[in-house]
Amino acid sequence: MLARLFNLTDILDSPGFIANCQIHLEGMLPAGQAGDFNQGMMDLGATICLPNVPTCAACPLGGDCMAFQAGVQQDRPLPKAKKEIPHYIVTAGVI
Q: Which of 29, 46, 59, 76 could disulfide-link 4, Cβ–Cβ 3.0 to 4.6 Å?
C-alpha cells in the first residue's frame, strides 16, 4: 500500500524501499496515536488497496495516492526478484 501511496519504485523489502517509507511516514504519524494509524493503514491495505485489484475509486487516500494520480497503481509495488534456481550437472556410477 505504501508503495502505491508514495509511488515508490524500489523493490519491496530492499533497504531503499524501507528508507523511503520511513522518510515519508515520519511527517504523517500522529503523536501518541501510532497504533491507531498503523491499524488504519493495515485495514486500508486489507480491504481497498489489494495487491492485484485495488479499488482506488473507494479509497479515502485516492487524492493523495501518487501511483493512482500517475495511473501506475497496477504496477506498484515492484515484486522481489526471484532467486535463480541452481542447476548442477552430476554424474554417478554404480559398480
A: 76
Give the angle subtended at the CA of 13 by the CAs of 12 and 17, to the nearest 5°. Answer: 70
- Structure confidence by residue, pLDDT tens digits, 34-57: 899 889 989 998 999 988 888 888
Q: Nearest 5°: phi and psi at 4? A: -75, -45
Predicted pLDDT at 93: 87
Burial 77-88, CB ≥16 within 10 A → b, else e:
beeeeeeeeeee
What does each C-alpha distance from 12 to 2, 19, 32 come to in angstroms? 10, 11, 28
Three-state DSSP class for 11? strand
Which amino acid belongs to residue 91?
T
Q: Which residue has the higher pLDDT, 70 or 79?
A: 70
